[in-house]
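Below is a complete specimen:
___
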Amino acid sequence: MDLKPVSPTVKTPAEAFTGDVYLTPIHTGTPPSRMTVALVRFTPGAHTNWHSHAVGQTLHVTEGVGLVGIRDGSVLRVRAGDTIVCPPGEEHWHGAAADTFMSHLAMLEALPDGGDPTSWLEPVTDEHYREANQRS
């Protein structure tokens, strides 16, 4: 058994996120485990770019209200306690609702070859985000 100290929180890069988003690494597995877990905190209105994960991603909302959208236009309004499973290769985005903070645990698997399991794409347009807040 290992007790790992708390890792420093970092501000996420502007090229992959809109608004202020902070990430605290929790766990990076050592082989044979490939699990990666982070606590991600979104300020009101902050969200990711469109992206996908080669092996999928699981999000568990720990605080606040957020949105998760996929390419077909579907948007889920999520709350503390909700768990969202994004299948491998599904292009999606997620973040806080316009008027509240949202935090979630982001859980995914690293690739066996050590490559990046996340494919970052274009930003979510302001119009798309605004519409998502209104209809969900």
Q: What stands out?
A: The chain has one domain: 10-135. The chain is about 5% helix and 45% strand. The mean pLDDT is 95.
